[in-house]
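Reviewer 2 asked us to include a model.

Predict the structure of this chain.
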Amino acid sequence: MGERVDWNPGVKGSPQLFVLGIPGQGKSWTVTRILSELERQNVPALVLDFHGQFAESQGVFMKAVQPSVLDAAKGLPFSPFECSREGGQGGWMANALAVAEIFAYVAGLGEMQKDIVYTSVRDAYKARGFGDDSDDATTQILEYPTLKDVLKRIELHEQTRHVANVAARCRPLLEMDLFRPTDQPADL
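Predicted model (structure tokens):
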């Protein structure tokens, strides 16, 4: 207590933070102070605000930081299929697997169902021209798969491979306008 603490935040590694405590112990105030300091040091932060306290227009955080606010109820201005145009860890194949794993977690899918999602996303990328032999110039002009592309492929793979309930479980993610890509993506 009472000792100076120097904190030099960055974006390397896997920087996450959880603040836990009983009501009234200053969690929100602590998070507001941390986020304000991150902003001051030009370190980006993603806040999932389930109670809306950090998005209140007259709130301390909004006044101090003036963040970009995305309301998931109004749709998120990006596609889950956006990825690095280069191969490798951030490329389309890695993104196909990452999306399948996220969908599996959110929708409670089993291994076979997750593979249906993975192959559907992978095939949707390939149908749009992404491939192992695509050169960088070609990849730069390709369009990403759409939610409808992927849902159609899920329904097709589900029938041909006799794996049930994949489309039904993924439908809320693919049809409820959660993702609404725009021509000018939001600067997150």
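The chain has a mean pLDDT of 86. The chain has two domains: 1-69, 92-175. We have added this to the supplementary material.
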